[in-house]
Design brief:
Layout: E1 2-5, H1 11-18, E2 25-29, H2 41-46, E3 54-59, H3 64-74, E4 78-81, H4 87-96, E5 102-108, E6 127-131, E7 158-160, H5 169-174, E8 180-185, E9 190-192, E10 195-196, H6 198-211
Parallel strand pairs: 1-2, 1-8, 2-3, 3-4, 4-5, 5-6, 6-7, 7-8
Antiparallel strand pairs: 9-10
């Protein structure tokens, strides 16, 4: 199971999270209205030294030029698109990015018909990310009804996101889907916006790996 820890913004905390056994991807948010927004040369210099994790940049309706610039500056491995980006935008982005950079497209899931939106993005993304609908973009701290995902019949693997915390362990132990690739963790493990509780995070990851090694 892939484990992505998103919304990091403090260099030492990023280093600590990246050192936790079981963390595969870390996420940095490049969306200015977010309380977890990152704009730091220090972090840009730090990221290439963290060789045990893949680095993900989260963008919301950003220009292709800025996404490509940030991707190069921070040496990102994944770009997570959390806005209303169309499939054409993803195709154009892929044509200009290094082949090693992969895309993740986020979708807010409220009902079964929301899953139909994913069809136009098949073949463009390494993963989809299924999140809880909010009035803004991400960061709800709440889960959606995962039973809806039984209707997902796409071929792109997905990450579960939205309000996952220690009280989600039992639900996760019973959740199964052929395309389920991993989970995305954020606000339920914070001591402050963008700062993760290392002990809490480590304990959760140890627990989840018992059921989904």
């Amino acid at each position: 199971m892939l484990i992505k820890v998103c919304g990091l913004k403090e260099p030492e905390n990023i280093r600590q999270v990246s050192a936790i056994q079981g963390v595969d991807l870390i996420g940095l948010i490049f969306y200015a209205p977010s309380t977890r927004y990152v704009d730091s040369e220090t972090i840009a210099h730090l990221l290439p030294t963290l060789t045990s994790v893949k680095k993900t940049g989260v963008f919301v309706n950003e220009s292709k030029e800025e996404v490509i610039r940030k991707c190069a500056f921070y040496q990102l491995d994944y770009l997570q698109l959390h806005g209303n980006e169309r499939p054409e935008y993803l195709s154009e982005l892929l044509a200009e990015l290094p082949s090693r950079v992969k895309l993740i497209k986020a979708f807010s899931i409220h009902m079964e018909k929301d899953l139909l939106l994913t069809s136009g993005y098949e073949g463009l993304c390494e993963y989809f990310l299924f999140d809880t609908p909010t009035s803004g973009y991400g960061g709800s701290g709440r889960s959606f009804d995962w039973k809806i995902l039984q209707y997902y019949s796409g071929t792109t693997p997905f990450l579960l996101s939205g309000g996952i915390g220690h009280d989600s362990l039992e639900l996760l132990s019973h959740f199964h889907h052929q395309q389920w690739a991993g989970i995305d963790l954020n606000s339920r493990f914070e001591t402050a916006p963008g700062v993760k509780d290392i002990a809490l995070l480590s304990d959760f990851i140890q627990n989840i790996q018992l059921h989904h090694p």
